[in-house]
Amino acid sequence: MDETTGRRRAPAMDPEQRRAMIISAALPLVVEYGPLVTTAKIARAAGIGEGTIFRVFTDKEELLAACLEEALRPDDTVAHLGGISLDQPLAARLVEAAGVMRGHMDRIGEVAGALASRGKVERAGTADMEEGQRARESGLAAPRAALAALLEPEREALRLAPERLADLFQLMLMSAGRSGVRDVSDAEIVDLFLHGALSAQRGSDA
Rounded to an integer, what distance in angstroms lies between the CA atom of residue 70 and that of residue 16? Predict the structure, then answer.
């Protein structure tokens, strides 16, 4: 603790560690306050002085952009998908994967939605919009590959290649999130994905 100010000193960190710590503290506040969140609030949540933020980030806008970039990062999502046991039946694998993917997309939506809907947000230029689109696609590509790996053991029994089905499954999950129909369960989505809309009896009559 600093004896002159009574403030607990932040532990020694390299710039990247401090950057990650500040972003982690800022993310829930960004969801709550959007772009109106103050660096003073973020500093208090991180247990650091406000000036420390500006030794890592040029300004608040750079910090907010870093928070959105962090929300888009698929690392944890891919790790969770990769940890799903292939010994389970396919339906069980996909239900577990759907929960992971919907959680990832919810986090992106919370941060992006908070930044876009509260306060005055400047319209991004064309270059920024294109960069944002590339970042979003990059954030979806790795999970899509992990989904394909979950389908791979059934390749010979599938109507389409695992890569194509992973693309369609991801699209279904994204559509369910955008529609706002949160009472559709992961199991219902997976059942519709695997078996379609027709009942087994109707399908045999067609």
Answer: 13
Q: Are the C-beta atoms of residues 111 and 27 closer than 8 Å to each other?
A: yes
Contact by Cβ (8 Å): 150, 94: yes
CB 103 within 8 A of CB 182: no
pTM recorded for the entire structure: 0.74
Q: Which two tokens stand for residue 31?
A: 């969801």
List of residues 6+ apart from 26 with CB closer than 8 A: 37, 42, 45, 46, 63, 67
> CA-CA distance, 9 to 172, in Å (whole number)?
48
Q: Are 114 and 37 in contact (CB under 8 A)?
A: no
Output the CA torsion sign for 19, 24, 29, 30. Answer: positive
- Give the H or E element holding residue 65: helix 60-72
SS3 state at 85:
coil
101-132 pLDDT, tens digit each: 999 888 888 888 888 865 444 444 444 445 55
